């Protein structure tokens, strides 16, 4: 299935969860937030949050500095 991740099309296995996506993208365990279709998804829900065809995801990484 296809989803949009930060405005880039990505192919995923059907019924992938957010946790599976973070593993596939090799994202860090801490310091990121994910919104699906403009709704922030709490980290505690990532394991059971199933993605669907054409979902639009925004992944935000925390940055240090000022």
List keywords for this structure.
66 residues; mainly beta; five-stranded mixed β-sheet; 1 helix; globular
What is the H/E order? EEHEEE
The assigned structural class equals: mainly beta
- Main sheet: strand order: 2-1-5-3-4
Q: Whole-number average pLDDT?
A: 94
The Cα radius of gyration reads 12 Å
Spatial gap, N to C terminus: 39 Å
Helical percentage? 10-25%
Largest sheet: 5 strands, mixed
Model description:
The chain has 66 residues and is mostly beta strands. The chain is built from one helix and five strands; from the N terminus they run ββαβββ. The chain has one helix at 18-24; strands spanning 2-5, 8-11, 32-36, 39-40, 56-61. A five-stranded mixed sheet has the order 2-1-5-3-4, with no helix packed on it. The chain is globular and about 35 Å long. The model has no long low-confidence stretch (mean pLDDT 94).
List the helices and strands and how they pair.
Elements (H helix, E strand, L loop, with lengths): L1 E4 L2 E4 L6 H7 L7 E5 L2 E2 L15 E6 L5
Parallel strand pairs: 1-5
Antiparallel strand pairs: 1-2, 3-4, 3-5
In short:
The chain is mainly beta and 66 residues long. It is built from one helix and five strands. It has one helix at residues 18-24; strands at 2-5, 8-11, 32-36, 39-40, 56-61.
């Amino acid at each position: 299935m296809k989803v949009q991740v930060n405005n880039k099309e990505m192919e995923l296995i059907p019924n992938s969860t957010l946790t599976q996506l973070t593993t596939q993208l090799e994202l860090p365990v801490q310091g990121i937030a994910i919104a699906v279709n403009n709704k922030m998804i709490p980290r505690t829900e990532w394991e059971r949050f199933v993605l669907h065809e054409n979902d639009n995801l925004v992944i935000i990484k925390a940055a240090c500095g000022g």
